[in-house]
Write a structure and sequence with these properties.
Blueprint lengths: L1 H21 L4 E2 L2 E2 L6 H5 L6 H10 L2 H5 L4 E6 L1 H5 L5 H5 L5 H9 L2 E3 L4 H10 L4 E4 L5 E7 L2 E5 L5 E11 L2 E6 L7
Parallel strand pairs: 3-9
Antiparallel strand pairs: 1-2, 3-4, 5-6, 6-7, 7-8, 8-9
Helix pairs in contact: 3-7
Organism: Pedobacter jejuensis
Keywords: Signal
Protein name: Fasciclin domain-containing protein
Length: about 180
């Protein structure tokens, strides 16, 4: 009987420890990301995503990304935006370029919540490649390169997912190292 009670306590302890571990908040841009916060409320705390947050505000997409969703967001870092030709970001955030900026940003969003396991399953089902339809309407291609999840945009540019599965209350964020471009 003592062994049974000790075994039950050990199982409960292991389950509790595993549950706590699974709830650990990932760090993105020096800030904890909370699964109880929405995409915007988490992104504004990441020092690596200040350009993305400014662009989302300039495009008027804050309320959309705070809505119920769910959304899968491929979130370019400040370094990803810095890879664009000089002056590109400054030009895109001007009010007269809102339509172009919105097109680029919505190209980074897929309707529904697709964590890395769901994307990997789609890649396997697609024979090594998955086509993801973005909110913008065009497709992104996902494939694996070794153990890295790679995205190819409509113009043939490639981006690597550097941090996957950052869960949000209204979806999931995957941090990427290059801005994706629609046609």
């Amino acid at each position: 009987m003592k062994k049974l009670i000790l075994s039950a306590i050990a199982v409960v302890t292991m389950a509790f420890t595993s549950q706590v571990y699974a709830q650990k908040n990932p760090m993105v841009g020096g800030a904890e990301m909370y699964a109880t916060k929405d995409i915007v409320d988490n992104a504004v705390n990441s020092k690596d995503h200040t350009t993305l947050v400014a662009a989302v505000k300039a495009a008027g997409l804050v309320e959309t990304l705070k809505s119920a969703g769910p959304f899968t967001v491929f979130a370019p870092t400040n370094e990803a935006f810095a890879k664009l030709p000089a002056g590109t970001v400054e030009t895109l955030v001007k009010p007269e370029n809102k339509a172009t900026l919105t097109k680029i940003l919505t190209y980074h969003v897929v309707a529904g919540k697709m964590d890395s396991k769901a994307i990997a399953k789609a890649i396997k089902a697609g024979g090594g490649k998955a086509e993801l339809t973005t909110v913008e309407g065009e497709k992104l291609s996902a494939h694996m390169m070794g153990n890295k999840l790679m995205l190819t945009d409509a113009k043939g540019g490639m981006s690597t997912v550097t941090i996957a599965d950052v869960n949000q209350s209204n979806g999931v964020i995957h941090v990427i190292d290059t801005v994706l471009m629609p046609q």
